[in-house]
Design brief:
The protein has 381 residues and is α/β, with parallel strands linked by helices. Helices cover 28% and strands 28% of the residues. The strands form five sheets. Strands 1, 4, 5, 6, 7, 10, 11 and 12 form an eight-stranded mixed β-sheet that branches. A five-stranded mixed β-sheet has the order 16-13-19-17-18. The chain has a two-stranded antiparallel sheet with strand order 2-3. Helix 3 crosses helix 5 and helix 8 runs parallel beside helix 10. The longest helix is centred in the C-terminal third of the chain and has 14 residues. It binds cytidine-5'-triphosphate and magnesium ion.
Length: 381
């Protein structure tokens, strides 16, 4: 193996002060750690990721990184350095030529960073993305400035840092002193460590407020995608009427293989359309007996799951029910609440409204009910 990456995530996130470790906090709907892993893979250079986490979190980490080229998580240690050492030892059998070490708390690695770090290792034992310090530096003691520290030449080191694997493994096995990053071990041993450009966007989630900065860095990279859906079902006597997940009292109900909820069906098709993932019939074929009288809530939950699987977000959904009767307005708040719950979004992202067709056509003659839906998603390219 040429390039492997360690993803260290065994810290407790004490400075963040969240109820759990910061690497598991949601960022645009997905855990910080998942973003960090995908960011490492984006340049197409990393062949395998070795996650390192607390013993008790191993199952959780394996699950949230599922589907990526990731080795089973191994337990870390009491310090970051001990965690890196544990990850390096776990890679020994694969003996990669190059190992990258990345903080699980850094969800934004700008494209090109991994490639630049790997390229810089041509002729050096280590390479580090770093940013020159722009602010004036003050040494503060007891809440007062003790003195101004010259910032000439000072840089802020980020991750992923890259190393020749045998060199870093040997240094970690020998290390007596503790270091806050891996390059420090090379510097102490007199090895050359190269600098590649870091980025202001490469935030390490450390304090409250850092999640908002990471979100602001990620959002502009998302692509807006729009989808529309349309559905019609026939009105028949003797069936309950389900519209947008709510049972509405009415003399007739909609006929169909499932519960025939036109509103939810149109909405599902809008989502599948936005993702270019076919339509509801492809995911839930009417030819299959198990969908007979099915609660369409399951279909919408599936569609919402597809947005999440693509790392996307639902910006808004708008459903129009087209019928002469029953009157929809009294039921719209309950429908909005139900749809928002099924999609896992706040209610203000969902609209359910209705129109008649002035007694024209099949909705006007009350032979059936139609629904149309539009959604906007934000999805990583
Ligand atoms: N880390 C680790 N093992 C440790 C300590 C830290 O794997 N014993 C990891 C963290 O999970 C994080 C990275 O090293 O991804 C950078 O460390 P830091 O930002 O200090 O994270 P925490 O130690 O979790 O935070 P804090 O210091 O605020 O408790
Ligand atoms: Mg720490």
């Amino acid at each position: 193996m040429r390039v492997a990456a360690l993803l260290v995530a065994a810290g407790r996130g004490e400075r963040m002060g969240a109820p759990g470790p910061k690497q598991f906090l949601p960022l645009l709907g997905r855990p910080v750690l998942r973003h960090a892993a995908e960011a490492l893979l984006r340049d197409g250079m990393v062949e395998a990721i070795q996650p390192v986490c607390a013993e008790a979190e191993r199952g959780r980490v394996d699950a949230l990184l599922a589907g990526l080229p990731v080795l089973p998580a191994v337990p870390g240690g009491a310090t970051r350095q001990a965690s890196v050492r544990a990850g390096l030892e776990a890679l020994a059998a694969r003996a990669p030529a190059i190992v990258l070490v990345h903080d699980g708390a850094r969800p934004v690695v700008p494209p090109g960073t991994v490639a630049a770090v790997v390229a810089a290792l041509d002729g050096a034992e280590g390479a580090v993305p770093a940013q020159p310090v722009a602010d004036t530096l003050k040494l503060v003691a007891d809440g007062r400035v003790a003195r101004t520290v010259p910032r000439d030449g000072l840089h802020r080191a980020q991750t992923p840092q890259g190393f020749r694997y045998p060199t870093l493994l040997a240094l970690h096995r020998d290390a007596a002193e503790s270091a806050t990053d891996d390059a420090a071990l090379l510097e102490a041993a007199g090895h050359a460590v190269r600098i590649v450009p870091g980025s202001e966007l490469n935030v390490k989630i450390t304090y409250p407020g850092d999640l908002e900065r990471a979100e602001a860095a990620l959002l502009p990279r998302m692509l807006p995608r729009t989808g529309t859906g349309f559905d019609v079902h026939r009105l028949v006597p003797g069936r309950p009427l389900f519209l947008c997940g709510v049972e509405v009292p009415h003399a007739m109900g909609l006929d169909g293989h499932s519960d025939a909820d036109v509103g939810l069906h149109a909405l599902c098709d809008a989502i599948y359309g936005a993702l270019a993932e076919g339509d509801i019939g492809r995911h839930f074929p009417p030819s299959e007996a198990r969908w007979k009288d099915a609660d369409s809530a399951a279909f919408l939950r599936h569609a919402a799951g597809r947005i999440a699987a693509r790392g996307g977000l639902l910006a808004n959904a708008d459903v129009t029910l087209i019928c002469e009767r029953p009157k929809i307005t009294p039921h719209a708040p309950a429908m909005i609440a139900r749809v928002a719950e099924l999609l896992g979004v706040p209610e203000d992202r969902v609209s359910v409204k209705a129109t008649t067709t002035e007694r024209l056509g099949f909705p006007g003659r009350e032979e059936g009910i139609a629904a149309q839906a539009a959604v906007s998603l934000l999805v990583p390219p």
